[in-house]
């Protein structure tokens, strides 16, 4: 039987590329003899971890990685936010991506090109070459509805001035203080870029969302209703890389020590704090967390990274942890109960039986990972759409404790030690008493969704049938 080939192009951010590659493996595993995938990778000098990650994935059967030759970075007067830089930089790869896809499709016709939320410029390439184009959306269905809703608002309407915003993909009105930073400081954070990407989502032949029906029934149903006039929605998640950085990160020996430390802690005793691939905290915020942790008195594992020194760069692990960052004597006093580290193998940590709760920035991959391993979250959003994810998890779905819903890395208020202490206590005590149980139930549903005849399995089957019919 003839094999259909699809191509995928994703933004070179950890939170976008990793689920896109996992999606590729899921496509292949669903029908091992029918599909193969070409993943076109774009390098970004500011994202060195991405190269290590790609190297570790190059030997998956039926997936080939094709490195797109780099183009120059746009001059600094062309952008004033990460999203603008990224969108222009990716868009500048269009001619070379077109050439690459043209060459690919001379040997075998492509059944589809999958682009992600910031790669919509590649829809033009798919149109030029007559390749059906699909969107792979690595954030929740609720947020997909949110950005699509923004496209319906008059260009000069200020979404942040209303007390709350009614968005059809959320059951409850969204309080204005939980809007993403790009809605509040529109010019500084590239609001119009988010809208112009979202405007193009409808041009695709289908939207694949990394979620599952049982987690976001309200949002998925709202997207599928006719008023939106969207292409078919395929909730195929949770798509998670269960091996994670344990396989590819250069600091694996230190990671092993972290896991060994966890091996010595009692079951469900450790609170884990981690703020995503781009998250870092100011020194004054670090001190408040330390005070809150000490007052709460739980064992802790804290992934702490130093704010980037240059614009667009990512935070780094501290070379030497300077004790003056913390309250006097904090390191000595907590030596028996706490471990502070840099980049962690997050999935391996969440899978460890010692972990009892997760203070998270609420990136969508982190949320899906925590659900998958039944670890309740306390919300501490920082950037991107995380305030909305925190709102959804805590208020809409009742699956998280709130530390804050409105915290932000840029221009946010300080989260005080008493909020940290309260949130951690609530988290580790299991919220309202039922939280741990609820998260466990959702975890079981996430596994069922992926099993034969589960909701995500069926969505994947529908998608693959369409892809096969395209060639
Ligand atoms: N991650 C990790 N170790 C870290 C920080 C992040 O393994 O110290 C992984 C995490 O498991 C997740 C991804 O990086 O898979 C982050 O994606 P998410 O969507 O949660 O947040 P983003 O980094 O995109 O804001």
TrEMBL record:
Which residue positions does the secretion signal occupy?
Answer: none
Keywords of this entry: Glycosyltransferase, Transferase
Which CDD domains does the record match to this protein? Answer: GT1_Gtf-like
Q: State which Enzyme Commission number(s) the record gives.
A: 2.4.1.-
Does the keyword field hold Transferase?
Answer: yes
Alphabetically, the GO molecular function entries are: UDP-glucosyltransferase activity
Task: Please provide an example of a Pfam family that matches this protein in its UniProt record.
Answer: UDPGT
- Which principal EC class is assigned to this enzyme? transferase
Superkingdom, natural source:
Eukaryota
Name the InterPro entries for this protein. Answer: UDP-glycosyltransf_plant, UDP_glucos_trans, UDP_glycos_trans_CS
Q: What family name appears in the similarity comment?
A: Belongs to the UDP-glycosyltransferase family.
Q: What does this protein do?
A: May glycosylate diterpenes or flavonols in leaves.
Annotated protein name in UniProt: Glycosyltransferase
Which organism was this protein described from? Answer: Lactuca sativa (Garden lettuce)
């Amino acid at each position: 039987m003839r094999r259909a080939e699809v191509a995928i192009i994703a933004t070179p951010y950890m939170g976008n590329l990793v689920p896109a590659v996992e999606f590729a493996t899921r496509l292949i595993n669903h029908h091992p003899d029918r599909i193969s995938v070409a993943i076109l990778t774009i390098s970004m000098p500011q994202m060195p971890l991405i190269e290590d990650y790609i190297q570790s994935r190059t030997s998956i059967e039926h997936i080939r990685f094709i490195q797109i030759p780099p183009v120059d970075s746009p001059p600094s007067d062309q952008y004033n936010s990460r999203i603008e830089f990224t969108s222009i930089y990716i868009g500048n790869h269009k001619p070379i991506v077109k050439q690459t896809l043209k060459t690919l499709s001379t040997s075998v016709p492509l059944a589809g090109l999958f682009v992600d939320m910031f790669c919509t410029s590649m829809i033009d390439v798919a149109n030029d070459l007559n390749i059906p184009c699909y969107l792979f959306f690595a954030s929740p269905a609720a947020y997909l509805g949110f950005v699509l809703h923004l496209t319906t608002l008059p260009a000069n309407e200020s979404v942040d001035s209303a007390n709350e915003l009614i968005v059809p993909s959320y059951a409850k009105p969204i309080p204005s203080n939980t809007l993403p930073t790009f809605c509040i400081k529109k010019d500084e954070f590239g609001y119009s870029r988010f809208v112009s990407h979202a405007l193009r989502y409808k041009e695709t032949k289908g939207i694949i969302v990394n979620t599952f029906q049982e987690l976001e029934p309200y949002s998925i149903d709202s997207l599928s209703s006719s008023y939106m006039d969207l292409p078919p929605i395929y909730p195929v998640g949770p798509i998670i890389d269960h091996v994670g950085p344990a396989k590819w990160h250069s600091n694996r020996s230190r990671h092993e020590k972290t896991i060994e430390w966890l091996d010595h802690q009692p079951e469900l005793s450790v609170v884990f704090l981690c703020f995503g691939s781009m998250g870092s905290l100011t020194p004054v915020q670090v001190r408040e967390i330390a005070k809150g942790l000490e007052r709460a008195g739980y064992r802790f594992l804290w992934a702490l990274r130093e704010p980037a020194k240059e614009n667009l760069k990512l935070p780094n692990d501290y070379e030497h942890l300077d004790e003056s960052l913390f309250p006097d004597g904090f390191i000595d006093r907590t030596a028996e109960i706490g471990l502070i580290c840099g980049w962690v193998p997050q999935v391996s940590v969440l899978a460890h039986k010692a972990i009892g709760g997760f203070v998270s920035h609420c990136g969508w991959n982190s949320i899906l990972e925590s659900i998958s391993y039944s670890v309740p979250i306390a919300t501490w959003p920082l950037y991107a759409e995380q305030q909305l994810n925190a709102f959804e998890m805590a208020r809409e779905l009742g699956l998280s404790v709130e530390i804050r819903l409105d915290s932000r890395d840029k221009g946010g208020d300080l989260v005080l030690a008493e909020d940290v202490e309260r949130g951690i206590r609530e988290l580790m005590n299991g919220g309202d008493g039922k939280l741990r149980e609820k998260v466990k139930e959702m975890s079981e549903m996430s596994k069922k969704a992926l099993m034969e005849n589960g909701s995500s399995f069926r969505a994947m089957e529908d998608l693959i049938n369409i892809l096969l019919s395209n060639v």
